[in-house]
Amino acid sequence: MKIELSLLFFVEAVGTIAFASSGAMVAIKKQLDLLGVIVLGVTTAVGGGMLRDIIIGNVPPALFKDPIYVLLAFITVMLLFITVRMNQKFISGRHMETFEKVMNIFDAIGLGAFTVVGIDTAVLAGYGDYHFLIVFLGVITGVGGGILRDIMAGQTPYVLKKHIYACASIAGAMLYAGLMNHINEDIAMLAGAATVIVIRLLATRFCWNLPTAVKNN
């Protein structure tokens, strides 16, 4: 049990770092000040879980009861802010390309982890028989922080227009919800998370996008 908890914490920590970094980079590129960078970074990392908790009536949300992930997100944001402040070349050229590639992998892992964690939280709260609800809560845990980030940054949410991001979370959540009562729960959880990760990485690698009503020439 301790090993499972340690692994789950590690995976969630990786996702928190990736999401906090993505939020901070959006703020940095928007030339927001330090407070703006902190707010966007931390919100991206823990916003999805906060929305999930509010929906199921778990108030105050878990991030206020056990702020370990808030602290981790804050430290990540500050380190990234200082790095960019001390080395302006970091946000351009090959350094940025390498950073984005690494963060994309972490982001995929985090999205998979947060999606299944969101479902687990809903099940533990007594909503295991409501499959539509737990799938929705899994997805909102995974993508909610990014949606809040983009709204605060004044741009169209990334999940609505690029690389089937939310679709990957939906697919993994549906698989986990469908398998959890038929096979070992840990295996179902891993299968759901792995599905999210694989779809995300493939979508990025091959530039998969859903069609739009207006064709781009």
Automatic annotation (TrEMBL):
Subcellular location(s) of the protein: Cell membrane
Membrane topology: Multi-pass membrane protein
Record's keyword terms, sorted: Cell membrane, Membrane, Transmembrane, Transmembrane helix
Transmembrane segments annotated in the record for this chain: 6-27, 34-55, 67-84, 105-124, 130-151, 163-181, 187-208
Pfam families referenced in this protein's UniProt entry, alphabetically: Gly_transporter
Highest taxon of the lineage: Bacteria
A single Gene Ontology CC term: plasma membrane
Keyword Oxidoreductase annotated: no
Residue stretches making up the Glycine transporter domain: 10-83, 105-179
Family recorded in the similarity comment: Belongs to the UPF0126 family.
Name of this protein: Putative membrane protein YeiH
Species this protein is from: Lacrimispora xylanisolvens
